[in-house]
Amino acid sequence: MNKIRIAIAGLGNCASSLIQGITYYQSRDLDAVAGLMHPEIAGYKPSDLKVVAAFDVDVRKVGRPVEEAMFAPPNCTTIFQAEIPPTGVIVQMGPVLDGVADHMANYPDRQAFRAADLPAVDVTAVLKERRVDVVVCYMPVGSEKAVRHYAQAALDAGCGFVNCVPVFIASDPVFAAKFTARGLPIVGDDIKSQFGATIMHRSLVRLMGDRGVQVKRTYQLNTGGNTDFLNMLERTRLESKKISKTESVQSQMDVRLDDDNIHVGPSDFVPWQKDNKLCFLRVEWEGFGGVPMNVEARLSVEDSPNSAGVAVDAIRCCKAALERGIGGPLHAVSSYTMKHPPIQMRDNEARDMLDAFIAESAPKAPMAQQAI
Fold first, then answer.
1. Residue 281 pairs with which residues in a beta bridge?
2. How many degrees, rounded to 5, is the angle at CA 192 between CA 2 and CA 345?
3. Domain range spanning residue 159?
4. For the chain, does the N or the C end have fewer beta carbons within 10 angstroms?
5. In the predicted model, is pLDDT for residue 367 greater than 50?
């Protein structure tokens, strides 16, 4: 089977974990190892992803081979697969646009972006030249112009698009219509972790609704030490992120909470945490007889591998849709893998629809085998 040819926009921690995983699962029995929701999708394993193009703006990454740049500062995620075979791909200079927040200049080199003084390449031309199947967008939070630039480049080059960041593309009617008109699939927006703060929060409030209690107020406070958390210290870049996370939780409740009674979003940057993310969660509710009760939880996860465990599914589903000629937002895939999909669903419903999509795209067995 052919490889899934991917281009990565933003070679940060999430991209590093994804690329490490491609090699990590190459020589392992997929049915016997942890970390995969679907060992195979449409005949593709995680090791069938092939990076054929990469874009970044950091001076320590641009011009270097992918297998070196993915470990360069300010990346700080766990290295679980240190040996990466040569990719033959050099990281190219992408457009800076609004991808680097001004306050990054006030932090040490090891923690912040340092934009290279180079002209940006023609992203569309590179995508066409490298025959890219799927563009995976890992731009920083708040990079509205940069994300839209890569989305348009994917459209112009005839690629599928997986938008892992909280800039609304799949859930934007204008862009959704463009991808539908071009017959190109898009998965988005803002990737969920495999088991992280949002999925735990959603599950808790949904369970409470199913058990007949009424949620009165809730918060989710997160801290971390990667560039994502540093970037989000600039509060003006947080609008879409806060909407994405808040709506993801609100969508699981039978009665929406007033804005004053729900707070979901990043809290602070703690440098020594690096790629470790801490979530502090509280939910208050009224039970039988209107008696008040509450639950508090603390979650500690490595942020980027947690994301990559979902990205490998979103990418393979996007490729399956390409092969089947399906264009526009992939609703089942987006609802299960993203925080702000075009259509919010309960997670069990999205999972069932995703599995049905995967079953439809699975390679058919030879006739002789079907008859057995």
1. 220, 297
2. 100
3. 4-192+305-361
4. C
5. no
